[in-house]
Amino acid sequence: RLPQRALQGRRLLDAGDIPANAPYEAFLQGAEAVVSGALRAGALPLVIGGGHDSSYGVYRGLAATGKAAALALDAHLDVRPEHAPNSGNPFFRMIEAGLEGPDLAQVGLIRHVNAEEHETWLRLKGATLQFLEPGRESEAVGTAKGALAAFAQRQRRVLATVDLDAISAAHAPGVSALNPWGLDASAALAIAKACGACPAVAAFDLMELAPPLDRDGQTAKLAAFLAAAFLEGAASRPS
């Protein structure tokens, strides 16, 4: 648990859960309805999942309210051309639904876990892709901030989505596809705070938290810290 100060003066409203056992399309429609409704009410949705395909439902809710873009913190490109439940398909489905390539930026990617044809496909679409290099992991923070600035200039409403498997297993072991190397907690927190501070960011989600795999609740606590960092950034937005 985090103290009240983590809310940075904001009121927290729990919009409830989307039943995980609902039919898949109904699940996505439920996420879309909750997010679009929150946005139309002037709220700032903070969504916790679930497989990363849940972000497709969040995106649909955002896209229903205006021209959308997406910034992803993820080890994986997640563009498998599939429509069934699959945590590897959210950005394929977003692009299929109208997300333009230049309105997608992915940071924290790891080449060892991504197919070359998926990278080529996204580059041809015009997406921004930042792959990690040993000793230069912090470059993801600068790339993320640059993408946010570009989206804001183009007057996009941004979904900032964090797949916790982009973070090294030393910091985030409780995910379904852990990685022995990736971003450290400090870089992830800096990106979350930058997302909060950017007025163009209209929704923030944290995905792939797997409690049964989470030793001592370490990953859940990091996810809570990321949410707090996002809210800390949001508190700095111009009123």
Protein traits:
7 helices, six-stranded parallel beta sheet, 239 residues, alpha/beta
Tell me about this structure:
The protein has a 6-stranded parallel β-sheet, with helices on both faces. It is globular. It is built from 7 helices and 6 strands. It is of the alpha/beta class and 239 residues long.
Structural class computed from helices and strand pairing: alpha/beta
**How many beta-strand elements?**
6
How helix-rich are the residues, as a percent range?
A: 25-40%
Order of helices and strands: HEHEHEHEHEHEH
Average pLDDT across residues?
A: 96
Radius of gyration: 16 Å
Largest sheet: 6 strands, parallel
Give me the oligomer status. single chain
Give the helix tally.
7
User: What is the approximate shape?
Assistant: globular
Strand content: 5-15%
Strand order, main sheet: write it out. 1-6-5-2-3-4
Q: How far apart lie the N and C ends?
A: 28 Å
Q: Ranges with pLDDT <50 over ≥5 residues?
A: none
Summarize it.
The chain has 239 residues and is α/β, with parallel strands linked by helices.
Topology:
Layout: H1 24-40, E1 46-48, H2 54-63, E2 68-73, H3 90-96, E3 104-109, H4 116-125, E4 128-131, H5 139-153, E5 157-163, H6 185-197, E6 201-207, H7 218-234
Parallel strand pairs: 1-6, 2-3, 2-5, 3-4, 5-6
Helix pairs in contact: 1-2, 2-3, 5-6, 6-7
